[in-house]
Specification:
Order of helices and strands: EEEEEEEE
Structural class: mainly beta
Radius of gyration: 13 Å
Largest sheet: 5 strands, antiparallel
Shape: globular
Length: 91
């Protein structure tokens, strides 16, 4: 359930998702990719790198650039699987 909309400022994207109902989730890592969503090496940490809520604004993106974003739940024993990537163009 990850969605992305253009942020209020240039170079921002607003992410929101359905939080996982598990008590073991400590938060979420946010990753962006500007080249190829299939290439595992192309994913980098977003700014901010993590969030404790199910909404966050990612900043520092290049205006007019297409990005893919995904989230990964971090739990007490490691990380969950990444969400399906969602594409958007930074305003």
């Amino acid at each position: 359930g990850l969605t992305v909309t253009q942020g209020d400022e240039a170079g921002e994207g607003d992410l929101s998702w359905d939080p996982q109902p598990q008590k073991t989730i400590n938060g979420y890592f946010i990753e962006v990719n500007s080249t190829d969503p299939i290439d595992p090496g192309a994913w980098v940490s977003a700014r901010p790198r993590s969030a404790s809520a199910s909404k966050v604004t990612v900043a520092g993106l290049k205006t007019g650039q297409k990005y893919w974003v995904r989230i990964i739940a971090h739990v007490t024993k490691g990380e969950g699987a990444p969400s399906d990537p969602v594409a958007f163009i930074a305003p």
